[in-house]
Write a structure and sequence with these properties.
Length: about 425
């Protein structure tokens, strides 16, 4: 196959890296890519939201499978447009992508079909949102209804923080049209968990769980980011828990989407909270998580291209794919620009990338580019250092050993990724 990966972050790098290992793949293209991706794929500078140009590129290069990384092109109809041009793309069409594109749609779907989630309501009026938050009791979670690059959810400890969050999202419109409505929901306590399921209509293949670290500083302090690291597997979730999650959340959601006339295809990403009353859904996404993908995908030992192609073409069940999962643990530590997730500078040279010799460590590029012959910083999250090990402890040790070899001006990373795991 000729494969096109759309996007240029860490998630897209791990997708390209894994697809390049597939015996089903002859050639990989990526747009726009980054300094790491361009070493293993042909990169071209097309904006991921320029769907018409992507279609033309796919036709020109005889692309057999397109794999979009970010959510925005999916919500805006990339799969719809590809299908109308007889091109195959892995992901949901725009109707199904609403499960991420509109939190109001997603929450209403869960209520209608009995899928466990936090109590909530949706508001287009700031005063009404504030009143509901006060009545619900603090802490509460305020979320922009639309896409906000993983930064549109705010945990509010009191009425003052809720008012500030509502004002930022709805009045100041920090996230643009995504904040025209907000979801106000109860704060759930427990252990967070990320689950990826490869879905094709009614057919499902579950991938191993992972846990993200969203806050920018150690101890889960500071503002939320797109993710500062992740690990897999997660000891807090038992086989019994996973069976309940699959039966009561993933299967129910997949069936609900079919019954609502918007069958899902692609990766259904469930952000969950393991509460004292069982697993509850925090949110659904319609694409791989970042950096969770950097610890889950390396543990998949089968033909990854064959898996995605089967799902995209509606042949997941017929393909009879049995997931082969590496029993080893994986830990990813994100190296970010100083100041992220607020203001930060770009263009700093990165050194030490060539000095990492551990074969069980892979550095996935996120915000990087080439400046002459030098890799330089080009984003908030710059690199994701992923290591495999016989345990989380061993994987952590390998990951942080590699992190210590990498330098750029202002580099920031958390030192506690995976520390909550004892094994």
């Amino acid at each position: 196959m000729n494969v096109l990966v759309v996007g240029g972050g860490g998630r897209e790098h791990v997708l390209v890296w894994k697809l390049a290992k597939s015996p089903s793949v002859d050639k990989i293209y990526c747009t726009p890519g980054n300094a790491g991706i361009q070493k293993i794929a042909d990169c071209t500078d097309i904006d991921p939201r320029d769907i018409s140009s992507l279609v033309e590129f796919a036709k020109e290069k005889d692309i057999d499978l397109t794999v979009p990384g970010p959510e925005q092109p999916l919500v805006e109809g990339l799969v719809d447009e590809f299908r109308s041009n007889s091109l195959l793309a892995f992901g949901p069409d725009s109707k199904a992508a609403r499960i991420e594109g509109s939190k109001a749609f997603s929450k209403d779907l869960m209520v209608r079909h009995g899928i466990p989630t936090a109590r909530f309501d949706v508001f287009a009026n700031p005063a009404n949102a504030q009143k509901f938050a006060d009545n619900l009791g603090y802490p509460v979670v305020i979320k922009a209804d639309g896409l906000a690059a993983g930064k549109g959810a705010v945990i509010c400890a009191d009425a003052e923080e809720a008012a500030e969050a509502i004002d930022t999202i709805m009045v100041e419109q920090k996230f643009g049209k995504a904040g025209e409505k907000v979801v106000v929901e109860e704060f759930l306590e427990g252990t967070e968990l990320s689950i990826f399921a490869i879905v094709s209509g009614m057919d499902i293949l579950m991938l191993p769980p992972s846990q993200d670290h969203k806050a920018v500083y150690d101890g889960d302090k500071g503002p939320n980011t797109g993710g500062m690291g992740a690990y897999s597997p997660v000891s807090a979730v038992s086989d019994k828990d996973l069976a309940v999650i699959e039966r009561d959340i993933i299967v129910q959601t997949v069936h609900a989407m079919v019954s609502e006339g918007c069958p899902f295809s692609g990766v259904l990403y469930a952000g969950l909270m393991l509460t004292s009353k069982g697993p509850h859904v925090l949110e659904f996404n319609c694409r791989f998580g970042d950096p969770e993908a950097q610890v889950v995908i390396p543990r998949y030992r089968g033909d990854f291209a064959k898996l995605l192609y089967a799902a995209a073409s509606g042949d997941l069940e017929q393909a009879n794919i049995v997931p082969d999962i590496d029993p080893r643990a994986a830990v990813c530590v994100v190296l970010a620009s100083g100041g992220y997730p607020l203001s930060y500078k770009k263009g700093y040279p990165i050194t030490g990338l060539d000095g990492i010799e551990d074969e069980d460590v892979t550095v996935f590029h996120a915000g990087t580019r080439m400046k002459l012959d030098q890799v330089v910083t080009a984003g908030g999250r710059v690199l994701g250092v992923t290591a495999l090990g016989s345990s989380i402890t061993e994987a952590r040790s390998r990951a942080y050993a590699a992190v210590s070899a990498i330098e750029f001006d202002g580099v920031h990373f958390r030192t506690d990724i995976g520390r909550r795991e004892r094994g």
